[in-house]
Amino acid sequence: MKLSEIRQLAVGCQDYMVEMRREFHRHPELSGEEFKTREVLVREIEGMGVPYKLLPGTGIIAIIQGGKPGKHRVIRADIDGLPVMEEACNLKQPKACVSEVEGKCHACGHDAHMAVLLGTMKVLLEMKEEIEGTVYCCFEEGEETNCGIKTMLEMLEEYPIDECFALHVYSGLDAGKVNIVPGPRMAGTVGIGFHVKGKAGHGSRPDQAANPIVPAAHIVTQIDSAFLNQIDAEETVTLGLCVFQAGETTNVIPEDAYIGGTARYFNKGEGEKALRIINMVAENTAVCHKCSIEFAERNKISLLPVVNDAGVALRTQEMTGEICGADVLSDCDRWYASECYSMYLEKYPGALGFLGIRNEEYGSGAAHHNGKFDIDESALSLGVCAEVGFVLSK
User: Fold this and answer.
1) Rounded CA gap, 232 and 362, in Å?
2) How far apart, in whole angstroms, are the C-alpha atoms of residue 153 and residue 160?
3) CA neighbor of 184 nearest in space, from 10, 345, 322
4) For 146-174, what is each residue's pLDDT tens digit?
5) Cβ-proximal residues to 339 (8 Å cutoff; 6+ apart), any chain
6) Rg of the chain over all Cα atoms, to the nearest angstrom
7) 332 CB-side CA count, 13 A
8) Helices (H), the chain
9) Which of 190, 258, 326, 334 has its Cβ near the most Cβ atoms within 10 Å?
């Protein structure tokens, strides 16, 4: 099959993908609750005649066996929505499709991820005899809470996986563009969460208590200062302290103050250093005020950064350019959000591509996890070309 024909097949799936994306979008389900979503996916996969495996929970692995021997490749799409109230309009006008479930929506684009992978499956089936190897189409449960990743990776251990690929729609990139490059692409996460434990007392006699609010306030400013002076200036580590909870009454010194947030990083070593700094500042500052620190379960490195393998990224980039033309390939900044897809990349060589969805004329381009978030659906066929390009890359 000529590469130009692959592009035509992808465009030929456009109406189907729009229909599927809107069906998923109207009926979003939260992480670990995607049972109706899985029913729709199973309906479509069975309709294509593709064998599949249902995972414990809501995940699915559909398997396309090529007509020639070759690599075993994973393509991954996530399937969950968010507890976000969707707005009827995007940045400019009413949306083409809105959630019908109050307080829930696909405000990160996972509806598009599912639609694109279904479209990719249709194209791969058209050229099945020409495919070298096996393609595992993974529909992953609960990316937003990371509740399905462990199950998916355990199930994939049954197969001799060589490489993996995924796309994420990205509001920071124009529709009609795709970014597939080597190196760090999404940030890792340091979870921050700890209690400053003191001694309760009456507000009139702070000397008879150990007020945890005072060291907690110092900890907030000292962590910020320590980051400025100790994190490698050549690296990027952001600090977001977003929760400070203490006390309920104006004349009662509380026993507990809680601080929570995240730090984001692209270099594993600097992420580990950031966690050490946070813990050291918290513990030492608390001691100075006759208090102690009790770390919460979340106070740890929860996700590593998404770092693309150079070989997979460049081969997929090249093939995508050959299918669609080099003008679809675009530069793009790293994204400071985090993704459990990093756990695939810890096991297999692979890459994550950014699929542009921003269109100022239409009104898409609002930040992810935002009620105004929307996508330019014309991007879907390019997503198929990138995923097929990954399968065809050598």
Assistant:
1) 41
2) 12
3) 345
4) 999 999 999 999 999 999 999 999 999 99
5) 143, 168, 186, 303, 306, 352
6) 24
7) 31
8) 3-12, 14-26, 35-48, 110-126, 149-156, 213-230, 268-288, 310-324, 342-347, 380-392
9) 190
Q: Return the sign of the alpha-carbon dihedral for residues 202, 204, 207, 208.
A: negative
Distance, CA of 271 to CA of 281 (rounded, Å): 16
At residue 238, φ and ψ (nearest 5 deg) are -95, 150
Range 233-265 burial, b when 16+ CB lie within 10 A, else e: eeebbebebeeeebbeeeeebbbbbbbbbbbbb
Coarse DSSP helix, strand, coil percentages of the chain, rounded to the nearest 5 percent = 35, 30, 35
> Measured between alpha carbons, how far is residue 101 from residues 30, 115, 376 in Å?
11, 19, 22
Comparing CA positions, the residue from 159, 145, 156, 165 lying closest to residue 34 is 145
* pTM assigned to the model: 0.94
Distance, in Å, from the CA atom of 20 to the CA atom of 39, rounded to the nearest integer, reads 13
Tokens representing 112 are 């598009």
Amino acid at residue number 281: V
pLDDT tens, 29-46?
999 999 999 999 999 999
The token pair at 383 is 């997503």
Beta bridge partners of 183: 308
Q: Match 């990027």 to its residue by tokens.
A: 236
Query: What tokens does 363 get?
Result: 């009104």
Closest CA to 12 of 177, 127, 93, 166: 127
